[in-house]
Known about the structure:
Structural class: mainly alpha
CATH architecture: Up-down Bundle
Largest sheet: none
Number of strands: 0
Strand content: under 5%
Amino acid sequence: MNKQDALFEYLLRIADNALILGHRISEWCGHGPTLETDIGMTNIALDYIGHARNLYQYAVEIEGKNRTEDDLAYSRDTTAFKNLLLVEQPNEDFAYTIVRQFIFDSFNYHFFDALQSSSDERLVGIAKKSIKEIAYHYRWSAEWIIRLGDGTTESHKKIQEALDEMWMYSGECFNADAIDNQLLEAGIGVDLAAVKSKFDTRVSDILKQATLTLPTEEWMQEGGKQGNHTEHFGFILTELQWMQRAYPDMEW
């Protein structure tokens, strides 16, 4: 694969993570456990949608096929999305949502921090613009993990159960493939092994503060980066893309 095509795929992966997770979090709008938390989660969802837009805009320029950011969000089918399986998992309850956020935020912060050293100036600009919001997400989810883990007997039980269930999706974040390796060698991409080291340290520290046990499961789910998704993904796209599919090329 030439460098331009590899970069396009790389941008899609990062943008798709943001779009799909932003959509998942938006499902909490009006349903949060407290008004403050509800508003906070809605703002986090908007942050992710903003990150996705910046990345899609760059992706269509790299692709050079006269597509728009909306085409990438609303006109692709399931297998064309390259997000991690983690971000498409259902909210289930507040504990599952927080664990999903904590795992992704712990990866995403260190990924974007490293992306600021890319040789691609446009990616550096996007990373620097996004990192302040991502740092907030990074703190927010960790604080909730500690609060729930070191809270009541019931909150501890629920957050540990959610962690045990969701952990099998964490490994894919660091599973480097040919595209990751090609762009790393070109000085554009991020060293996922280095991110994994920082992730492990961060997660271990937060779970210790939360009195939670790190799962020992080593088998991991994967496939999202190659367009293979869980049964939940079709339902996400049905809701996300309904308006554009029903009324193609509509304008306000």
